[in-house]
């Protein structure tokens, strides 16, 4: 007796179900893997955001502590404080093309010494003293300095030594000269050049020190 077409299709239909089951198992497995990855990604993202918030809070507290320590000189307008960098106009500290401190500069650095020392007592950091000049080449009255780079380095070293003499631990101080590099204003007017002739005092983490 011959089989009907419907009877011929039964084994083929039965063989489809295991394949379909395997496909669904694979899809379910992929879904589980994707779900686990998504959860892990969210956990890592939350951890990174928490760490970033903690870092920002620490930095904000550091800057607030520094601003509080320097409240006097800031209120008097003798210094500026920008993103943790203490700025001092070169004209307050030195005569043009000179690395010898003027009396007003000596008095200012002595006034800064105690706040900086108090700040260092609560923060494991270094004090970086940076010297900067404008872009004009040195003249014959430059007192033996080869170029702006050398002049800026000597000025930074002079300020560093003055702070150490005023009581800031010398183990927490170092000097760097940048010459006319990194200006804060275009060197196109006398006023702007005066802004670029400056010394900056910057607390930095010890692990980031050169």
TrEMBL record:
It holds the Pfam family OmpA. The chain crosses the membrane at residues 15-39. Gene3D superfamilies: OmpA-like domain. PROSITE patterns: OMPA_2 (PS51123). Keywords: Membrane, Transmembrane, Transmembrane helix. InterPro entries: Bact_OuterMem_StrucFunc, OmpA-like, OmpA-like_sf. Residues 190-200 have a biased composition (Basic and acidic residues). Residues 179-210 are annotated as: Disordered. One of its GO terms (cellular component) is membrane. Residues 81-207 form the OmpA-like domain. CDD domains: OmpA_C-like. PANTHER family: LIPOPROTEIN YIAD-RELATED (PTHR30329:SF21), STATOR ELEMENT OF FLAGELLAR MOTOR COMPLEX (PTHR30329). NCBIfam families: PRK09040.1 (NF006547). This is Probable outer membrane protein. It comes from Sorangium cellulosum (strain So ce56).
